Amino acid sequence: MSRINQVIIIGHNPIAKVLYEKCKRSGVSVFWNDLSQGINADVIIETENSNREEKKKAIQEIEAAVHPETTILSTVLRLPTTEIASWAQNPSRIVGFGTFATIERTGLVEIAPALQTNPSHLNESKGFFRMIGNVTEVVKDEVGLVFPRILAMIINEAAFALMENTADAASIDEAMKKGTNYPYGPLEWAEKIGLEDIYAILQGLFDQLGEERYRPASLIKKLIYAGWTGEKAQKGFYYYQNHLRGSEVSE
Amino acid sequence: MQIKQIGVIGSGTMGSGIAQLLVQSDFATIMYDINEDILEKAKNSIFKRLDRLKEKERLTPDQWSKSKANLTLSSQIKDLQDCDLIIEVVPEKLELKKNIFKEVERICQQDAILATNTSSLSVTEIASSLNHSESVVGMHFFNPAPLMPLIEIIKGIKTAPEVIDQVMNFAKQLHKSPVLCEDTPGFIVNRVARPFYNEAIRIMKDQIASPEQIDTIMKKAGNFKMGPFELQDMIGIDVNFSSTKSVYQGFFGESRFRPNSYQERMVQAGILGRKTNKGFYDYE
C-alpha cells in the first residue's frame, strides 16, 4: 500500500465537510470540490447520496481528472457499490463506504468492494480511514451496508409510529433509551444525522430490493419536502409535531 | 382517588419484581397467586433482594423493615377487594387474563383501577368482557422491574382519561418514567426495536456480514451497548421470535415485521441462546 499524500473530497453534504475537517486534522493535503490537482491525488472521496444523476456525473468528472489507478471511495447509502462501479471506466478502483456525518462520534466505518473491485483499492481505502483515525470493517456490497441500514429501519418504524400517533415524539425517544438502552432516541438520532441520508437509505433499499418492507414512511418524505430535515435546518420530527399541535389549538 | 393499597396478581419473575418495586416505594401490596408454594418462593426471593439492598446500603434499616412489612401474600382473590389498583402479571394467555379480570371485577371496588402488564396482547381486548372496561389500562413494566426506569402506559380504546392520569402519576410516584402509548401491536419499544433484530438477521442471511461483524459494527459505529445477536442470545431466541411473530400478526402481516424462517429453525433445533449454551454464539 502506497503512502497517502493527497486527498480530494467531492460533494456538498455534511459527511463531505466532516471528512474534509478530519483530513485536515490528520495533516494530509486535502482539497474540497477542487479537481485541479486531481492528477496528484492518492484517494478521492465522492459523497452524493440523494441524486443518482449527480453522483454519476461526479464519478465521471473525477475519472476524467485523476490517474486511472487512483482509488475512488464513494458513499453507498442510496446505491450499491457495484452499480456505482458500473458507471466507471475503471470499475476495479471503486470502493463503497457507509457512514453518517455523526462519524466524529463513532470509531468504525464500514467499507464494501463492488463485485468488480480490485483488492489493492480495498487496502488503500482501509489505509485512508486508518490515517484519519477510523477503524474499518469490510462487509459485502448492499445499499446502506449494516449500521446505516439497521438504524434507518429503526428510524422508519419510529416515524410510522409518530405518523400514526401511537405516541408523541418525546415518548418514542424516551421509551427506546430507557426501555432498551439505545444511545439516542430514533427520532432525535435522525435529526442529528439529517433526514435526507435516512431517506436515501430507505428509498435505496426499496429500489434495490423491491420489497414493501423498505418503503419509507410518508412522513419522512413530507418533512424533506418541507425542508424540515433535522438539526441543520433546526426543524424536524419535533417541530412537525408541535407545529401540528399548535395549528389544532388555533382552529 | 389516591392509590394506597395495591394488588399484584401473579408471582413469577415480573410479578415479584413489580411487588418488590411497590413495597420499596412504600405501598401496601398484596401479592396474589393460586399456588401457595410459588407465592412463598416469590416472597423469599423478594426478601433476599431486599436484604442485599440493605447490605449494599441502598436501603436504610428503616426502609428495609418497612418494605418487608408492606408485603402481604394471599391465595384468595377476595383479599384484593380493598385494593385501589390491581396489576395483573400472569402468563400472556388472553383467556386466562380475561377470566382473571372478570373475577377481579366481581370482588373489587367500583373505582379500582385494573392494570395489565401485557407486552403483546391488546388491552382493549382484555378489557372487552368487563362491565367497566374504562377502568382497564396497560402498565407495561420492563425486566427487572425494580431497576428499569421505563413503564409504557397503554390506553385501550375505552380506557377513561382519569384512569390514564392516575396511572401516569402513580408511575411517577414510583420514580419511573411513564410514556403514554395507544393500544397498538408491540406498543412502542417492542415495535420500534423490531428492525434491530429483523434487519440484522436479514443482513446475515443475505451473506452481507456475519453475526460477529454485525455485533461489532452496531457497537462501534452505532454506540449500542450490545449487538443484535448477543442481545438475542441473552433474551432467548424463542422469546424474541415470539415477540416478532406477535407484532407481525398484530399488524396483519405487515412485511416490515416479517420474521425470518431461520429463527424458527433455531427454535425447532432447541438453539435458544445463553440458556441452552448455544444461540448465534457458543457459550460452552
UniProtKB/TrEMBL annotation, chain A:
Domain called 3-hydroxyacyl-CoA dehydrogenase NAD binding: residue spans: 32-141
Pfam families named among the record's database cross-references: 3HCDH, 3HCDH_N
Single biological process term from Gene Ontology: fatty acid metabolic process
GO molecular function terms noted in the UniProt entry: NAD+ binding; oxidoreductase activity, acting on the CH-OH group of donors, NAD or NADP as acceptor
Keyword Oxidoreductase recorded: yes
Location of the 3-hydroxyacyl-CoA dehydrogenase C-terminal domain: 144-240
Source species of the chain: Terrihalobacillus insolitus
Sequence intervals crossing the membrane: none
Family to which this protein belongs: Belongs to the 3-hydroxyacyl-CoA dehydrogenase family.
Protein name: 3-hydroxyacyl-CoA dehydrogenase family protein
Pathway given in the UniProt record: Lipid metabolism; butanoate metabolism
Assigned keywords, A-Z: Oxidoreductase
Keyword Oxidoreductase: yes
Organism lineage string: Bacteria, Bacillati, Bacillota, Bacilli, Bacillales
Domain of life from the UniProt record: Bacteria
TrEMBL record, chain B:
Molecular function terms from GO: 3-hydroxybutyryl-CoA dehydrogenase activity; NAD+ binding
Residue ranges of domain 3-hydroxyacyl-CoA dehydrogenase NAD binding in the record: 5-183
Keyword Oxidoreductase: yes
Entry-linked InterPro entries: 3-OHacyl-CoA_DH (IPR022694), 3-OHacyl-CoA_DH_NAD-bd (IPR006176), 3HC_DH_C (IPR006108), 6-PGluconate_DH-like_C_sf (IPR008927), NAD(P)-bd_dom_sf (IPR036291)
Domain of life: Bacteria
Ranges for domain 3-hydroxyacyl-CoA dehydrogenase C-terminal: 186-283
GO biological process, one term: fatty acid beta-oxidation
Pfam family, one: 3HCDH
Site (Important for catalytic activity): 140
UniProtKB keywords: NAD, Oxidoreductase
Binding annotation for NAD(+): 10-15, 33, 92, 97, 119, 143, 275
Pathway given in the UniProt record: Lipid metabolism; butanoate metabolism
UniProt family annotation: Belongs to the 3-hydroxyacyl-CoA dehydrogenase family.
Protein name: 3-hydroxyacyl-CoA dehydrogenase NAD-binding domain-containing protein
UniProt organism field: Terrihalobacillus insolitus
